[in-house]
Amino acid sequence: MTFFLETLIGGLLAGTLYSLVAIGFVLIYKASGVFNFAQGAMLLFAALTFVSLQEQGVPFVLALLLTSVVMAIGALIIERAVLRPLVNRSQITLFMATLGLSFIIEGLAQGLMGAQVRALDLGIDDVPLFFGEIMVSQFDLVAAATAALLVIVLALLFNHTRIGVSLRAVADDTRAALSIGINLNRIWQIVWAVAGVVGLVAGLLWGARQGVQFSLSLVVLKALPVLIIGGFTSIGGAIVGGLIVGAAENLAEAYIGPLIGGGITPWFAYFLALIFLYIRPAGLFGERTIERV
Amino acid sequence: MTATSHPLSAAVDNAPVELVARHLPWPLLVLLATAFGVLPWLGNDYWLNAILIPFLVLSLAGLGLNLLTGYTGQTSVGAAGFMAVGAFATYSLLLRVPGLPLPLALLGGGLIAAAVGFLFGIPSSRIKGFYLMVTTLAAQFFLEWVFTKFPWFYNYSSSGTISAPRLELFGYSLASPVGRYLLVLSTVVLLTWVAVNLVRSQVGRNWMAIRDMDTAAAVIGIPVDRYKRLAFAVSSFYLGVAGALWAFAYLGTASAGSFDINRSFQILFIIIIGGMGSIAGNFVGAAFISLLPIFLNQAGQWLFGGHVDAGQLQNLQKIIFGALIITFLIKEPEGLIRLLDNLRERLRVWPLRF
User: Fold this and answer.
1) How does residue A205 score in pLDDT terms, banded at 50, 70 and 90?
2) pTM summary value
3) Which Pfam families does the UniProt record give (chain B) (predicted)?
4) Is A99 in contact with B265 (Cβ distance < 8 A)?
5) Interface predicted TM-score of the whole assembly (ipTM), two decimals
6) Are the C-beta atoms of residues A137 and A74 closer than 8 Å to each other?
7) How far apart are CA A42 and CA A70, in angstroms?
8) Which of A6, A217, B63, B236 has the most CB atoms around it within 10 Å of its CB?
9) Residues 230-289, chain A, touching B (beta carbon < 8 A)
10) Nearest 5°: phi and psi at A134?
């Protein structure tokens, strides 16, 4: 029983990291209908920028701020050079454009800041904590708390600021939002910038875990099943989806893995997502679209 | 986002509806004669091995994916997984069925890949668009895992790799570059001919109807689910044959890692750059994808005289690649093949504009 609980809790905590990546997706998808494949590349870029700044001796908070500014500038450029010319194109086209975008960002990140693995120390001790008999990683706890904090900040931003309200208006009905004078391009810039900052937080936590390196950008693939389970349009769904995927992955590796040869984490989440899809084709919290001819 | 009702509507609309009798396609015949008769004797081994063979195999893979994504509108990012099935299945057939001729082994490998593709296509009846992409990603990662994890597939070799047991046809060895080139070329020509006719047939029309709007297709009485699964199977057949050729005619020795997700993306790029929903586009796209790195390498050598390290050059390559893809999507969403068509039209009426 202790082993089960430990595996479950470890999975749930790891799941919050998946949720963090997925939230970046949901933000952009809701506001601009773009499935942003470049989210992983943005994560890598942000983490690399942060580490490079820290290596230059820039203090933590300043580095965080500077990287956020860099991500915001990146968002401006992306909106101008990629999104605006592609407005009104099909979703698949936009998705493929973000595939291209991820190549550019990855190339830039590695070209400017090098391809070697960088260690990232956030000053969190990774000592195991014991609650009764159950061992929990302290780092995971801090990461989960950060994720929770980020979600609260985002919720406040969305519900209680002018920007947030217009953002939700755009997500609800783009045309209606345009007609009451909301500046769509501005909203896109803001959303991409916010997604960049969310990517920074996720990148730092992942980077502290496994080192800042190219494989960070592959986290994006891990976020897909999370999105599928939670639905593309719901932040709450992204969180629940992340928790489900994290827990299920850990449990499956521990209990099903030994039966069929182990190492099943690379694909298990996708199969889980498939099962969910079969039952609910638009995810747990996604909106069902009604098709008309 | 309001108009989420048809996420699959492709921007392409060039269905080959040509009811007039066609003339003999002379340029095509000349091209074929050159490819079969002249190139094997002109091209040196480097050209055959490093450029022509991969170009042809990638074209075939692009063709396979295009049938699924460009013609039927089902986006797949698992192309390389099905290529792996074809490669490993062909290997098993050649190894375990004594005396099986190579063409039959290739056919068998393709059919097994088609069966696997059919299986992974089943969810397409309920799942659409981005959600379907997850199915193909599941296929990609699952298949990669299977071919690494179970030694039976690579005959318990310690390195986990497979290599062609024998490449021969009617007693002639095909192991030389020219032999492998001719093997690949004949396969590609044959399968392309099949594909051209397939997309002009009722099957192809149904696929395009599903791509353009599957609800509407269902309303006019097309059995949508069955044709989607058929598209998965046919596409996987092509990819499977391409995978076997990639492993045995090009690489020589392959492992599951030769068919990773990056290969899938590469093939997706071929059809984006070449042209979705176009047969000839695959060849243009594959030529572009396989020549661009060589060109960039040469340009890098020439510009910097070898002072730039390979890593930076690769990063530069990535950036140029990404920028090109975005540029294409913005300027010419129908791909290079459309650009070539436009150019041909221009030349026809030159020097006038219309």
Assistant:
1) confident
2) 0.85
3) BPD_transp_2
4) yes
5) 0.82
6) no
7) 11
8) B236
9) 232, 261, 263-264, 266-267, 270-271, 273-274, 277-278, 281-283, 289
10) -95, 130
